[in-house]
Amino acid sequence: LVRAPTTYDPATQSVLLGSLNKHKIVAIAPDGRVTDRVPPGSGGLRSVAGIHVDTGRGILWAASNARYDTPADSTPSALFGFDAATGAFRIRLVVPPGPHFLNDVVTSPDGTVYVTDSRAGRVWYAPGGRAELRAFDAAGALIAPNGITISADGHVLFVSDADHIRAHDVRSGQTWRVGIPDSLIVSGIDGLAFIDGTLIAHHPLAFWRIARYQLDPEWKRIVARTLIEASSPDGRTSTTGEIVGKDYVFIGNSQIDRMNQRTIDATSMDPVRMYRVRIRPD
User: Fold this and answer.
1) What is the pLDDT of residue 75?
2) Which of 36, 61, 166, 248 has the least CB density, counted as fewest CB within 10 Å?
3) Residues 120-147 pLDDT 10s
4) What is the DSSP string of 194-241?
5) Which pLDDT value is given to residue 149?
6) Cβ(254)–Cβ(238) under 8 Å?
7) What is the mean pLDDT of residues 236-258?
8) Is residue 168 classed as helix, strand or coil in its secondary structure?
9) What is the reported pLDDT for 259?
10) What DSSP designation does 179 have?
């Protein structure tokens, strides 16, 4: 697949994986059966970065871009909406002209969808029912935003940037840089997930770890870190994961390094491995 951004569809109890390489989204059923939820190129879908299921509205959002390992590919970036259960195409949201790489996606309880743009250095959003993406400048100046997540109540948005995590309270408009102890580095975060006052962050390629960061009661500062995965071969290219009940399910060997190095070869690729770890008490 290569990279395989992940999300979870509770309606079908399926873990969903998107592919930068194969331009599709597959579903892993509870019994392990794998099927295409969104076929290759459906509705004009191209190289799939982040995906997210809006469970309240049954929409599977997918960030689509030109293949960055193919300079001749000029497909414009867009955010696609599919029926989460069937994969049927619903909507395509466009961004203003310019250099873009739409990356990770999240939705708030009211249906607003947010997507990071790592190349343009900003976050875009669309309130429920809108057919275009707007600049979410309230998040403040960003360099290369990647992972994005939101608190369960929909009040605070968290975005991973080049060397820090930025937070934004959508009610008050307050924005802050999440503080860290001197002993921690939060650079190079890809996927980001929020659960029970903590952030789960994937640090692939350069840092080889998946970390769970405990926030203080105001969510202004990281106060502790627990490593979920560290310095393992699969952890090296683990990019995203998803909360599934009491567990965290994440991609192991995304093999995104193959795409970065332009060395994709189906004959030498490994089967994608998924992992599950208990993160809530029984």
Assistant:
1) 93
2) 36
3) 999 999 997 678 899 999 988 899 999 9
4) EETTEEEEEE-TTS-EEEEEEEPTTSSBEEEEEEEEES-TTGGG---E
5) 98
6) yes
7) 90
8) strand
9) 79
10) B
Predicted structure pTM score: 0.95
SS3 103: strand
pLDDT of residue 233: 86
For 120-161, the DSSP string reads TTEEEEE-TT-SB-EE-GGG---SS---EEE-TTS-EEEEE-
Place of tokens 């993406």: 133
* Nearest residue to 190 (alpha-carbon basis) of 182, 180, 200, 181: 200
Given its phi and psi angles, is residue 31 left (phi above 0), alpha (psi -120 to 50 degrees) or beta? alpha
pLDDT given at position 37: 97
Query: Three-state SS for 46?
Result: coil
CB 198 within 8 A of CB 221: no
Token digits of residue 219:
């969510």
Strands of 134-135's sheet in order across: 102-107, 113-117, 122-126, 134-135
Burial of 276 (0-12, 13-18, 19+ CB in 10 A): middle
